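Sequence in, structure out. Go.
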Amino acid sequence: MQDELQTSAEALAAELNRSVYIEAPGYIPLAVSAHYGAVDQARIDALLSRTESPELMAYYKPWRLDAADAPVHIPANEALGLLPRVVYPVRHNGRLFAHIWLIDADPPIGEADDIAVDRASRTIGRILFRRDEKVQERADADESALRILLREDLAGRQGVLDEALRRHDAAADAPIVVLVARGITVASTGEPVTADALESFAAELGTTSGGTAMIPAAWAPELVALVPAKGDVIAAAQRHAHAVRAVAARHGLRFAGIGFGSAVCGVDGLADSYRQGRYCARVAERLTPQEGCRAWDSLGTFRMFAEIPWTPSGVDMVQPGLSSLFDDDRSPLAVTLWTYLECAGDVQEAVGRLNIHRGTLYYRLGRAEELLGIQLGDGESRFRLHAGLQLAKLAGLGKDF
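Output:
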């Protein structure tokens, strides 16, 4: 289908002697012809980033492109580096599938151009309709497969997995990890993603995911996918996260956190990998918001908090009384303890990071020992305290912590 679409774009561009740019609704690029005629900075930027800038999307909004049934003429905007454009809706059986963008300059678009685009849009509409049917069939099959595969109590799961891997041309014996993405929002507004938009994203992800096999499902408010993990699992996780973000950018979406479970072979352990992936996504969302990524195999000591509530009472389970240090937002005790422990008890480095006097550091540490009933010279106490402070970060306690 992609070859058919690209061929149609190239043929139309050659006929018009002007560049053709085809986008799906939401400014998602589908095909770009070879260069003909006028080009502007806005088009160059869109080609490089594979998406329109928020400023351009705001500029286009008054023309309500997704509701148009006829060509829309958009005037130039010098401040945005934009030459005039004509945007043609591509519909099939009344449904909008795409827009054909042409620059309306050198020379301006005429009646003959309109006729040629109208003829080409009917062909492009049929191509996209066929593609949409196939993509939706695959997306439905993937979603159904994942619901079965992640249920440990269901029989026949290995056959379901084998079929899903064949559907995506993935090796049957490849190790698999479960990817989970959380905090999915519209990048331009920060609003939560709708179920329809998430399903559309998942459907494309299963079709084209940066050259990697991926079996996704949209389970609002999260995305779940099975992905192969050949070689280094951590490196594979980074590649898959990059692929997911690239497709998300084309859909105007953003993730607060992406998590990966441990690698498994076959269906045994998939449910565990899913739970691990969900937990890692939570950690990434809390510690590295705006598209952070964490993998179970490299999560380190944060694994210990998977079964402990991320609440003040959970913090006190690890280190009794620790949550009281966060009752007063002005108290510097928590951040002082954290910095001191992160510096492995190196006083000189700690006072440098905190920008305080050595005597002030000793006073604060002594005050914390008194309030918590611990001795920082005791290894067990230091371990509990450090772990409790890590959990406090996950729980979102304290403004400066």
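Check: Residues 232 and 238 are 10 Å apart (CA to CA). The chain is about 45% helix and 15% strand.
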